[in-house]
Amino acid sequence: MPLEVKPRFVVLYGSQKGQAQSIAEGIAEEAEEHGLVAELCCLNQDDKYNLEKECAPVVFVVSTTGDGEPPDNALQFVKRIKKRTLSPDHYKHLLYALLALGDTNYANFCNCGKTIERRLRELGARQFYPTGYADDGVGLELVIDPWLKGLWNSIKDALTKMASDRNVQLKEDSAKEIPESSLPDVQLNLLSIADKQICEPDSKYSPSLAISDVRPPPASTVYTSAPNTQACSEGIPQVSLAASLTSSVPPLSESSLNVPALPPAYLDVTLQEADAAEQAAERLSKEARYEVPISKAVQLSKGDSVKTALLLELDISAFPSMTYHPGDSFDVFCPNVAEEVDHLLHRLGLQDQKNHRVQISLKDNTKKKGAQVPPHIPENVSLLFLLTWCLEIRSVPKKAFLRALVEHTSDSAQRRRLQELCSKQGAADYNLYVRDASLGVSELLAAFPSCSPPLSLLIELLPKLQPRPYSAACSLLRHPEKLRFVFNVVEFPACSGRPAGRRGLCTGWLFDLVSPGLVFPEKAELALPKIHVSLRPNCSFRPPSDPSLPFVMIGPGTGVAPFIGFLQQREEERKENPEAKFGETWLFFGCRYRDKDYLFREELENFVSSGTLNHLKVCFSREDRKDEEEPPSAAQPRYVQHNLLLCCRQVTDILLRRNGYIYVCGDAKNMAKDVNETLMEMIKTELQVDQLEAMKTLAGLREQKRYLQDIWA
């Protein structure tokens, strides 16, 4: 009997933190269950795939990073397909589907996926399945789960149609192009400025899967065992059902569950004793290119300020090649908290082997597609080093992780609860008790004491410990051989599953490093430690290359940091070229209290006095507000967007008539969205246009790189 050849398709991914890669690997692994073979490649492995000659369906899974940028491993691919020398029929033979991951807390939602899709269409590629836009702001699985469910039949339909067309072509021995009618009958999705999808009522397919489009089928009903609250006559909430991270209630506790497939194990991990010389030889990976000392630490916030803001100065004099520009960012490589690592070692029963070397190899005959030893784990490091510097042990466990934990949990009730949390029916509970609470692996293991996972499972499923990015808060012209940055010490409150609050991983670590100098200012000569950093040049978030152009800066709180560098640079340039023409500058700054968290107050006022900063607009959201429900008056703006409205004509004139720039830095979830909406209202008012035209105008500013953001969630 001849060997049956399974139909093939291609899965390509671009991933910054491993999420898109994990989804792509899941698709490749599930393919066999559907009688298919998937060829899995990263987009930067262009020696392993060839879209120019590909005759099978292609599935893209891509995330977006930074200000709408492609992941590092997709950057070259995006550059290649954006070449204007490519002909409009370059990919006329290509059938594709695309799943884009993003976060609506950021303005350029799923921008990498949209860029790839737009360019593929411009080059003649055809879509065989509607695009999915998954939002990490509310839960990726709300789009991913139904998108994956419908993917398989669409792949099979596309394969069948393509095979039929090839047979017809062979019989006719024709050189004609494949007629458009021979392609799978799908409704192509045309993106509007508002990222909505438009399709005809009789369209065979629904529009691209966005959050509002998801309607779970009856078989996948989502139940919640979250507390059901209702107000009594006095308005006091009354809880009618008790539920928590570790226990559920009907209907979830009594329902049948659809749980994800068990992730295939693919690593063999052993621990070997090491001598003292090996222990001393451990180093961070080559990513940490610069080890620099902290030369100064200053607390900028005062008194009982709600947030603690610090300025750190790094001495980079030992690295002449370490140059940067105002607006650039850099990465700080921080370790996991020692107490949390120690707790995890105890929980795994490996405390006595923490100095043993970790030996990692691939399992023989693993079913995992594209299995490889995680590249972020150096060879021959100790277990303590691995858990301290290599794995993000605070990362929120994905559902695949929970599914894997089930197999290592002995208590039946705990097994059931883990199954619920990773099931489709338990999605609401997962979001409430795991995702929204930002629980890490240690907290999860503490909640399920009968769960004893092997070390290999953590190495397989925990992501790489990512460096934390910060904006440069100075100019090399003002502070040669120095690099300054500002941050608030992040505080996470206690919650269900986490009995005690905690500080942000990197900000808490940095605060502990420099706190002796802060607590005892008389010890100014106290030697401060070194930290590992690497530069992240940002070629767009910089002052205009033409100094005569005006620009507007919006940066409340620590969002003002890059603009201190902008203004220091401008002041030094004005000194060097007093006869040159410099454009008008505006800064909109906001904080809670004038006397507590008005960061860089003296320096900003000096910029105004010197003429470097032409307009400084400041607001204080918590001052002199007797009635919190009272709206801000014109004389008392509360937030930066209120001051923007007061300066509507001047700001819109800079943007729409004087070819100026606008920069926004700070919180993405609230401030950046509010500023964006305010700018649209200002454009509507000034140009007397409707919402759509205002959105197009704002989108045009983004396209021209004159509306730029450096924002974070």
Can you put this structure into words, describing what you see?
GO terms for molecular function: [methionine synthase] reductase (NADPH) activity; flavin adenine dinucleotide binding; FMN binding. Its EC number is 1.16.1.8. It is an enzyme of class 1 (oxidoreductase). The protein has 19 helices and 25 strands. It is of the alpha/beta class and 713 residues long. It has four domains: 8-167, Flavodoxin domain (Rossmann fold), CATH 3.40.50; 287-334 and 467-519 and 527-539, Elongation Factor Tu (Ef-tu), domain 3 (Beta Barrel); 336-367 and 376-465, NADPH-cytochrome p450 Reductase, Chain A, domain 3 (Up-down Bundle), CATH 1.20.990.10; 551-625 and 634-711, Nucleotide-binding domain of ferredoxin-NADP reductase (FNR) module (Rossmann fold), CATH 3.40.50.80. The strands form seven sheets. Strands 1, 2, 3, 4, 5 and 6 form a six-stranded parallel β-sheet that branches. The longest helix is centred in the N-terminal third of the chain and has 32 residues, at 141-172. It is globular, with a radius of gyration of 28 Å. The chain starts with 7 loop residues before the first strand and ends with a strand. Residues 174-220, 229-240, 519-524 and 626-630 have low confidence and may be disordered.
